[in-house]
Amino acid sequence: MEYLKKAQHLEQTVSNEVEKTVKEIISTVKTERDAGVKKYEERFSKSVRALRVSEEEIEKSVRSLSYDEKALIDRVVERISSFAKAQLECISPLEKEFGPGIHMGHRIVPIEKVGAYIPGGRFPLLSSGPMVVAPAKVAGAKEIVACSPANYEGGIHPAVLYGLVRSGATHIYAIGGAQAIAAMAYGTESVPEVDVIAGPGNRFVAEAKKQVFGKVGIDLIAGPSEVLVFTDDTADPKKCAADLLAQAEHDPYARPIMVSTSRTIAEQTIKEVEQFLKEYFSSDSPAHESWAQMGEVIYARSLEEGLDICNDYAIEHLHVHVKDSRKLMDRLHNYGSLFLDSDSSVVFSDKVSGTNHTLPTLKAARYTGGLWVGNYVKVITHQEITGSGVDFLATHATEQSNIEGLEGHRLSAELRLSDKYLYNI
Protein backbone atom coordinates (compact mmCIF):
# COMPACT_ATOMS: atom_id res chain seq x y z
CA MET A 1 0.00 0.00 0.00
CA GLU A 2 1.04 3.58 -0.63
CA TYR A 3 -0.30 6.77 0.92
CA LEU A 4 -1.07 9.41 -1.71
CA LYS A 5 -2.39 11.58 1.13
CA LYS A 6 -1.92 10.85 4.84
CA ALA A 7 -3.82 12.20 7.84
CA GLN A 8 -2.04 14.66 10.10
CA HIS A 9 -3.96 13.43 13.16
CA LEU A 10 -4.62 9.71 13.07
CA GLU A 11 -7.08 9.65 15.95
CA GLN A 12 -8.88 11.87 18.39
CA THR A 13 -8.35 11.06 22.05
CA VAL A 14 -10.22 12.37 25.07
CA SER A 15 -7.93 14.67 27.02
CA ASN A 16 -7.49 14.46 30.77
CA GLU A 17 -9.19 17.85 30.98
CA VAL A 18 -12.35 16.55 29.30
CA GLU A 19 -12.40 13.52 31.58
CA LYS A 20 -11.98 15.74 34.65
CA THR A 21 -14.66 18.20 33.53
CA VAL A 22 -17.18 15.45 32.85
CA LYS A 23 -16.48 13.80 36.20
CA GLU A 24 -17.19 17.12 37.90
CA ILE A 25 -20.44 17.63 35.96
CA ILE A 26 -21.72 14.16 36.81
CA SER A 27 -20.87 14.59 40.49
CA THR A 28 -22.61 17.97 40.63
CA VAL A 29 -25.76 16.72 38.89
CA LYS A 30 -25.91 13.68 41.22
CA THR A 31 -25.72 15.97 44.25
CA GLU A 32 -27.59 19.10 43.16
CA ARG A 33 -29.95 17.46 40.66
CA ASP A 34 -32.04 20.07 38.74
CA ALA A 35 -29.97 22.92 40.17
CA GLY A 36 -26.79 21.25 38.95
CA VAL A 37 -28.22 20.73 35.46
CA LYS A 38 -29.32 24.37 35.26
CA LYS A 39 -25.89 25.54 36.41
CA TYR A 40 -24.18 23.85 33.48
CA GLU A 41 -26.91 24.73 31.00
CA GLU A 42 -26.38 28.38 31.84
CA ARG A 43 -22.59 28.05 31.74
CA PHE A 44 -22.25 26.09 28.50
CA SER A 45 -25.44 26.82 26.55
CA LYS A 46 -26.37 30.22 28.01
CA SER A 47 -29.78 28.66 28.60
CA VAL A 48 -31.98 29.79 31.50
CA ARG A 49 -35.20 28.20 30.28
CA ALA A 50 -37.27 25.43 31.89
CA LEU A 51 -35.64 22.03 31.47
CA ARG A 52 -38.72 20.16 30.26
CA VAL A 53 -40.30 21.08 26.95
CA SER A 54 -43.97 21.81 27.65
CA GLU A 55 -46.92 20.62 25.61
CA GLU A 56 -47.60 24.26 24.68
CA GLU A 57 -44.06 24.66 23.34
CA ILE A 58 -44.37 21.43 21.36
CA GLU A 59 -47.69 22.51 19.84
CA LYS A 60 -46.29 25.93 18.90
CA SER A 61 -43.25 24.32 17.26
CA VAL A 62 -45.36 21.85 15.32
CA ARG A 63 -47.61 24.66 14.04
CA SER A 64 -44.53 26.48 12.72
CA LEU A 65 -43.73 23.61 10.35
CA SER A 66 -45.24 23.34 6.90
CA TYR A 67 -47.22 20.34 5.72
CA ASP A 68 -44.32 19.31 3.45
CA GLU A 69 -41.78 19.55 6.28
CA LYS A 70 -43.90 17.36 8.54
CA ALA A 71 -44.54 14.87 5.73
CA LEU A 72 -40.79 14.58 5.13
CA ILE A 73 -40.12 13.85 8.82
CA ASP A 74 -43.04 11.41 8.94
CA ARG A 75 -41.41 9.49 6.10
CA VAL A 76 -38.13 9.32 8.04
CA VAL A 77 -39.90 7.98 11.14
CA GLU A 78 -41.87 5.43 9.11
CA ARG A 79 -38.83 4.04 7.31
CA ILE A 80 -36.66 3.80 10.43
CA SER A 81 -39.53 2.18 12.33
CA SER A 82 -40.17 -0.31 9.52
CA PHE A 83 -36.55 -1.43 9.46
CA ALA A 84 -36.48 -1.71 13.27
CA LYS A 85 -39.66 -3.83 13.20
CA ALA A 86 -38.09 -6.15 10.62
CA GLN A 87 -35.00 -6.49 12.82
CA LEU A 88 -37.10 -7.22 15.91
CA GLU A 89 -38.88 -10.02 14.06
CA CYS A 90 -35.49 -11.72 13.68
CA ILE A 91 -35.01 -11.90 17.46
CA SER A 92 -37.03 -14.94 18.46
CA PRO A 93 -37.90 -16.33 21.88
CA LEU A 94 -36.60 -19.82 22.64
CA GLU A 95 -38.27 -22.77 24.41
CA LYS A 96 -36.72 -26.21 23.98
CA GLU A 97 -36.12 -29.51 25.76
CA PHE A 98 -32.39 -30.24 26.17
CA GLY A 99 -32.69 -33.84 27.33
CA PRO A 100 -35.51 -35.56 29.30
CA GLY A 101 -36.94 -33.23 31.92
CA ILE A 102 -34.62 -30.32 31.07
CA HIS A 103 -36.54 -27.41 29.61
CA MET A 104 -34.67 -24.19 28.88
CA GLY A 105 -35.22 -21.05 26.87
CA HIS A 106 -35.12 -17.30 26.70
CA ARG A 107 -37.56 -14.42 26.44
CA ILE A 108 -37.25 -11.11 24.62
CA VAL A 109 -38.14 -8.35 27.08
CA PRO A 110 -38.09 -4.60 26.31
CA ILE A 111 -35.95 -2.20 28.32
CA GLU A 112 -38.55 -0.21 30.26
CA LYS A 113 -36.93 3.23 30.52
CA VAL A 114 -34.77 4.56 27.68
CA GLY A 115 -32.73 7.75 27.58
CA ALA A 116 -32.18 9.22 24.11
CA TYR A 117 -29.52 11.87 23.50
CA ILE A 118 -30.06 13.94 20.36
CA PRO A 119 -27.11 16.19 19.48
CA GLY A 120 -27.63 19.82 18.48
CA GLY A 121 -24.39 20.38 16.61
CA ARG A 122 -23.86 22.84 13.80
CA PHE A 123 -26.97 21.79 11.90
CA PRO A 124 -30.44 20.52 12.93
CA LEU A 125 -30.10 16.88 11.84
CA LEU A 126 -33.72 15.90 11.34
CA SER A 127 -33.09 12.14 11.34
CA SER A 128 -31.07 11.96 14.57
CA GLY A 129 -34.11 11.95 16.85
CA PRO A 130 -35.99 9.19 14.99
CA MET A 131 -32.77 7.15 14.68
CA VAL A 132 -32.47 6.93 18.47
CA VAL A 133 -36.10 7.06 19.59
CA ALA A 134 -38.07 5.09 16.96
CA PRO A 135 -36.27 1.74 17.54
CA ALA A 136 -36.89 2.10 21.29
CA LYS A 137 -40.59 2.63 20.61
CA VAL A 138 -40.66 -0.40 18.31
CA ALA A 139 -38.91 -2.49 20.98
CA GLY A 140 -41.69 -1.67 23.43
CA ALA A 141 -40.04 0.78 25.85
CA LYS A 142 -42.64 2.19 28.25
CA GLU A 143 -40.81 5.47 28.88
CA ILE A 144 -38.52 7.30 26.43
CA VAL A 145 -36.72 10.35 27.82
CA ALA A 146 -35.18 12.53 25.09
CA CYS A 147 -32.63 15.28 25.72
CA SER A 148 -31.35 17.76 23.12
CA PRO A 149 -29.51 21.08 23.51
CA ALA A 150 -31.45 24.35 23.61
CA ASN A 151 -29.40 25.88 20.83
CA TYR A 152 -32.14 27.08 18.47
CA GLU A 153 -33.73 30.35 19.58
CA GLY A 154 -33.59 29.22 23.17
CA GLY A 155 -35.06 25.79 22.53
CA ILE A 156 -34.97 22.69 20.35
CA HIS A 157 -35.35 23.16 16.61
CA PRO A 158 -39.06 22.66 15.67
CA ALA A 159 -38.28 19.95 13.11
CA VAL A 160 -36.14 18.04 15.62
CA LEU A 161 -38.87 18.40 18.23
CA TYR A 162 -41.53 17.13 15.81
CA GLY A 163 -39.36 14.12 14.96
CA LEU A 164 -39.01 13.25 18.63
CA VAL A 165 -42.76 13.45 19.18
CA ARG A 166 -43.58 11.38 16.08
CA SER A 167 -40.97 8.76 17.03
CA GLY A 168 -42.51 8.15 20.44
CA ALA A 169 -40.58 10.22 23.01
CA THR A 170 -42.64 10.43 26.21
CA HIS A 171 -40.59 13.20 27.91
CA ILE A 172 -38.53 15.83 26.08
CA TYR A 173 -35.93 18.08 27.74
CA ALA A 174 -33.93 21.01 26.38
CA ILE A 175 -30.68 19.84 27.97
CA GLY A 176 -27.37 19.15 26.24
CA GLY A 177 -23.90 17.85 26.92
CA ALA A 178 -22.62 15.77 29.81
CA GLN A 179 -25.25 17.26 32.13
CA ALA A 180 -27.99 15.63 30.04
CA ILE A 181 -26.31 12.24 30.28
CA ALA A 182 -25.84 12.63 34.05
CA ALA A 183 -29.46 13.72 34.53
CA MET A 184 -30.80 10.69 32.67
CA ALA A 185 -28.41 8.29 34.40
CA TYR A 186 -29.07 9.42 37.98
CA GLY A 187 -32.38 11.25 37.73
CA THR A 188 -33.31 14.70 39.05
CA GLU A 189 -36.50 16.32 40.29
CA SER A 190 -37.50 16.90 36.65
CA VAL A 191 -35.69 14.22 34.66
CA PRO A 192 -36.61 10.54 35.20
CA GLU A 193 -33.84 8.04 35.82
CA VAL A 194 -33.46 5.64 32.87
CA ASP A 195 -32.11 2.13 32.33
CA VAL A 196 -30.13 2.65 29.12
CA ILE A 197 -28.81 5.72 27.27
CA ALA A 198 -28.35 5.81 23.51
CA GLY A 199 -27.42 8.37 20.89
CA PRO A 200 -24.35 10.15 19.50
CA GLY A 201 -22.78 13.38 20.73
CA ASN A 202 -19.59 15.39 21.09
CA ARG A 203 -16.54 14.31 23.11
CA PHE A 204 -18.12 15.48 26.39
CA VAL A 205 -21.24 13.39 25.72
CA ALA A 206 -19.12 10.39 24.73
CA GLU A 207 -17.01 10.70 27.86
CA ALA A 208 -20.12 11.09 30.03
CA LYS A 209 -21.64 7.91 28.56
CA LYS A 210 -18.39 6.13 29.31
CA GLN A 211 -18.40 7.32 32.93
CA VAL A 212 -22.05 6.41 33.67
CA PHE A 213 -21.78 2.98 32.05
CA GLY A 214 -22.53 0.37 34.69
CA LYS A 215 -25.03 2.61 36.42
CA VAL A 216 -26.96 2.46 33.16
CA GLY A 217 -26.45 0.61 29.92
CA ILE A 218 -25.24 2.45 26.81
CA ASP A 219 -25.38 1.71 23.12
CA LEU A 220 -21.80 2.52 22.13
CA ILE A 221 -19.23 5.34 22.26
CA ALA A 222 -19.50 7.11 18.90
CA GLY A 223 -16.93 9.68 17.80
CA PRO A 224 -16.82 12.00 14.78
CA SER A 225 -18.07 10.63 11.47
CA GLU A 226 -15.88 8.31 9.38
CA VAL A 227 -16.16 7.10 5.81
CA LEU A 228 -13.94 4.83 3.73
CA VAL A 229 -14.58 4.82 -0.01
CA PHE A 230 -13.13 1.68 -1.62
CA THR A 231 -12.72 1.84 -5.39
CA ASP A 232 -11.35 0.14 -8.45
CA ASP A 233 -10.77 1.58 -11.93
CA THR A 234 -14.53 1.67 -12.70
CA ALA A 235 -15.26 4.34 -10.07
CA ASP A 236 -16.40 7.90 -10.82
CA PRO A 237 -13.98 10.34 -9.11
CA LYS A 238 -16.71 13.00 -8.75
CA LYS A 239 -19.01 10.64 -6.85
CA CYS A 240 -16.10 9.45 -4.72
CA ALA A 241 -15.13 13.02 -3.85
CA ALA A 242 -18.71 13.98 -3.01
CA ASP A 243 -19.09 10.93 -0.76
CA LEU A 244 -15.90 11.82 1.12
CA LEU A 245 -16.93 15.44 1.65
CA ALA A 246 -20.48 14.59 2.72
CA GLN A 247 -19.04 13.05 5.89
CA ALA A 248 -16.19 15.54 6.20
CA GLU A 249 -18.66 18.40 6.67
CA HIS A 250 -19.95 16.88 9.91
CA ASP A 251 -16.93 17.75 12.03
CA PRO A 252 -13.32 18.99 11.78
CA TYR A 253 -12.27 15.61 13.18
CA ALA A 254 -14.35 13.58 10.72
CA ARG A 255 -12.26 11.01 8.84
CA PRO A 256 -12.72 10.93 5.02
CA ILE A 257 -10.62 8.05 3.66
CA MET A 258 -10.21 6.55 0.22
CA VAL A 259 -8.63 3.21 -0.67
CA SER A 260 -8.27 2.51 -4.38
CA THR A 261 -6.76 -0.18 -6.55
CA SER A 262 -6.41 2.50 -9.26
CA ARG A 263 -3.79 5.19 -8.79
CA THR A 264 -5.46 7.21 -11.56
CA ILE A 265 -8.87 7.19 -9.87
CA ALA A 266 -7.27 8.06 -6.52
CA GLU A 267 -5.36 11.03 -7.94
CA GLN A 268 -8.39 12.31 -9.87
CA THR A 269 -10.51 12.06 -6.73
CA ILE A 270 -8.05 14.22 -4.80
CA LYS A 271 -8.38 16.87 -7.51
CA GLU A 272 -12.18 16.65 -7.44
CA VAL A 273 -12.21 17.05 -3.65
CA GLU A 274 -10.13 20.21 -3.85
CA GLN A 275 -12.38 21.58 -6.60
CA PHE A 276 -15.58 20.80 -4.71
CA LEU A 277 -14.20 22.46 -1.59
CA LYS A 278 -13.60 25.66 -3.54
CA GLU A 279 -16.94 25.65 -5.36
CA TYR A 280 -19.49 24.28 -2.91
CA PHE A 281 -18.27 24.72 0.66
CA SER A 282 -18.18 27.96 2.64
CA SER A 283 -14.85 28.94 4.11
CA ASP A 284 -16.02 28.06 7.64
CA SER A 285 -17.28 24.57 6.72
CA PRO A 286 -15.69 21.80 8.82
CA ALA A 287 -15.05 19.94 5.56
CA HIS A 288 -11.93 22.02 4.87
CA GLU A 289 -10.21 21.14 8.13
CA SER A 290 -11.43 17.56 8.07
CA TRP A 291 -9.97 16.94 4.62
CA ALA A 292 -6.73 18.79 5.33
CA GLN A 293 -6.04 17.20 8.72
CA MET A 294 -7.86 13.86 8.71
CA GLY A 295 -8.23 12.95 5.03
CA GLU A 296 -6.34 9.96 3.64
CA VAL A 297 -5.97 8.46 0.17
CA ILE A 298 -4.32 5.05 -0.12
CA TYR A 299 -3.27 3.20 -3.26
CA ALA A 300 -3.71 -0.58 -2.87
CA ARG A 301 -1.71 -2.69 -5.30
CA SER A 302 -4.34 -5.44 -5.49
CA LEU A 303 -7.97 -6.11 -4.65
CA GLU A 304 -6.87 -8.46 -1.84
CA GLU A 305 -4.66 -5.77 -0.31
CA GLY A 306 -7.50 -3.27 -0.57
CA LEU A 307 -9.89 -5.63 1.24
CA ASP A 308 -7.34 -6.18 3.99
CA ILE A 309 -6.96 -2.41 4.44
CA CYS A 310 -10.72 -1.96 4.66
CA ASN A 311 -11.02 -4.65 7.33
CA ASP A 312 -8.10 -3.21 9.27
CA TYR A 313 -9.61 0.29 9.33
CA ALA A 314 -12.90 -1.13 10.72
CA ILE A 315 -14.54 2.08 9.55
CA GLU A 316 -17.94 3.52 10.45
CA HIS A 317 -19.25 3.83 6.87
CA LEU A 318 -17.72 1.58 4.21
CA HIS A 319 -18.78 2.56 0.68
CA VAL A 320 -17.68 0.14 -2.04
CA HIS A 321 -17.33 1.72 -5.51
CA VAL A 322 -16.16 -1.53 -7.09
CA LYS A 323 -17.59 -3.53 -9.99
CA ASP A 324 -19.80 -6.40 -8.74
CA SER A 325 -19.36 -5.14 -5.19
CA ARG A 326 -21.93 -7.53 -3.70
CA LYS A 327 -19.57 -10.40 -4.48
CA LEU A 328 -17.11 -8.88 -2.01
CA MET A 329 -19.53 -8.66 0.91
CA ASP A 330 -18.47 -11.95 2.54
CA ARG A 331 -14.86 -10.75 2.50
CA LEU A 332 -15.66 -7.52 4.34
CA HIS A 333 -16.43 -7.99 8.03
CA ASN A 334 -15.29 -4.91 9.98
CA TYR A 335 -17.59 -1.93 9.38
CA GLY A 336 -20.43 -0.04 11.01
CA SER A 337 -22.59 -0.06 7.88
CA LEU A 338 -21.84 -1.22 4.34
CA PHE A 339 -22.86 0.58 1.14
CA LEU A 340 -22.65 -1.52 -2.02
CA ASP A 341 -22.09 0.08 -5.44
CA SER A 342 -21.49 3.70 -6.28
CA ASP A 343 -25.09 4.92 -6.06
CA SER A 344 -25.76 3.56 -2.54
CA SER A 345 -24.87 6.90 -0.97
CA VAL A 346 -24.07 7.05 2.73
CA VAL A 347 -26.24 10.17 2.76
CA PHE A 348 -29.30 8.00 2.11
CA SER A 349 -28.64 6.17 5.38
CA ASP A 350 -27.86 9.44 7.16
CA LYS A 351 -31.30 10.70 6.23
CA VAL A 352 -34.01 8.25 5.31
CA SER A 353 -33.21 4.78 3.91
CA GLY A 354 -34.03 3.13 7.25
CA THR A 355 -30.80 1.69 8.65
CA ASN A 356 -29.42 3.48 11.71
CA HIS A 357 -26.76 6.14 11.41
CA THR A 358 -25.53 5.84 15.01
CA LEU A 359 -22.53 3.62 14.28
CA PRO A 360 -19.19 2.53 15.80
CA THR A 361 -16.09 4.65 15.14
CA LEU A 362 -12.37 4.43 15.95
CA LYS A 363 -12.21 0.71 15.04
CA ALA A 364 -15.02 -0.29 17.40
CA ALA A 365 -16.58 -2.05 14.39
CA ARG A 366 -14.12 -4.87 15.16
CA TYR A 367 -16.42 -5.93 18.01
CA THR A 368 -19.80 -4.23 17.61
CA GLY A 369 -22.35 -3.02 15.13
CA GLY A 370 -24.37 0.18 15.34
CA LEU A 371 -27.45 1.19 17.29
CA TRP A 372 -30.40 -1.08 16.52
CA VAL A 373 -33.64 -2.29 18.03
CA GLY A 374 -31.69 -5.01 19.85
CA ASN A 375 -30.12 -2.34 22.08
CA TYR A 376 -33.53 -1.80 23.61
CA VAL A 377 -34.42 -5.39 24.53
CA LYS A 378 -33.03 -7.94 26.97
CA VAL A 379 -32.60 -11.61 26.10
CA ILE A 380 -33.23 -13.29 29.47
CA THR A 381 -32.98 -17.02 30.07
CA HIS A 382 -35.08 -19.45 32.12
CA GLN A 383 -35.13 -23.15 32.92
CA GLU A 384 -37.45 -25.78 34.39
CA ILE A 385 -35.95 -29.10 35.52
CA THR A 386 -38.24 -32.06 36.24
CA GLY A 387 -38.20 -35.87 36.56
CA SER A 388 -35.13 -37.66 35.27
CA GLY A 389 -33.59 -34.30 34.41
CA VAL A 390 -33.26 -33.56 38.12
CA ASP A 391 -31.38 -36.80 38.79
CA PHE A 392 -29.07 -36.29 35.84
CA LEU A 393 -28.12 -32.71 36.67
CA ALA A 394 -28.03 -33.24 40.44
CA THR A 395 -25.62 -36.15 40.10
CA HIS A 396 -23.32 -34.13 37.88
CA ALA A 397 -23.51 -31.02 40.06
CA THR A 398 -22.83 -33.05 43.22
CA GLU A 399 -19.73 -34.67 41.75
CA GLN A 400 -18.44 -31.39 40.35
CA SER A 401 -19.04 -29.58 43.66
CA ASN A 402 -17.04 -32.25 45.49
CA ILE A 403 -14.09 -31.63 43.18
CA GLU A 404 -14.43 -27.86 43.58
CA GLY A 405 -14.80 -28.09 47.36
CA LEU A 406 -18.04 -26.07 47.36
CA GLU A 407 -20.10 -27.57 50.20
CA GLY A 408 -23.13 -25.33 49.71
CA HIS A 409 -23.35 -26.19 46.04
CA ARG A 410 -23.03 -29.92 46.83
CA LEU A 411 -25.75 -29.65 49.48
CA SER A 412 -28.20 -27.87 47.17
CA ALA A 413 -27.67 -30.41 44.40
CA GLU A 414 -27.59 -33.55 46.55
CA LEU A 415 -30.85 -32.71 48.33
CA ARG A 416 -32.57 -33.07 44.97
CA LEU A 417 -31.33 -36.57 44.25
CA SER A 418 -33.98 -39.31 44.32
CA ASP A 419 -34.20 -41.85 47.14
CA LYS A 420 -32.12 -44.41 45.27
CA TYR A 421 -29.05 -42.24 45.94
CA LEU A 422 -27.23 -42.30 49.26
CA TYR A 423 -27.25 -38.89 50.89
CA ASN A 424 -23.98 -37.81 52.47
CA ILE A 425 -25.40 -34.90 54.46
Automatic annotation (TrEMBL):
Keywords: Metal-binding, NAD, Oxidoreductase, Zinc
GO MF, any single term: metal ion binding
Binding sites annotated in the UniProt record for NAD(+): Y117, Q179, N202
PROSITE patterns linked to this entry: HISOL_DEHYDROGENASE
Pfam families the UniProt entry points to: Histidinol_dh (PF00815)
Family: Belongs to the histidinol dehydrogenase family.
Name of the protein this chain belongs to: Histidinol dehydrogenase/sulfopropanediol 3-dehydrogenase
UniProt organism field: Scopulibacillus darangshiensis
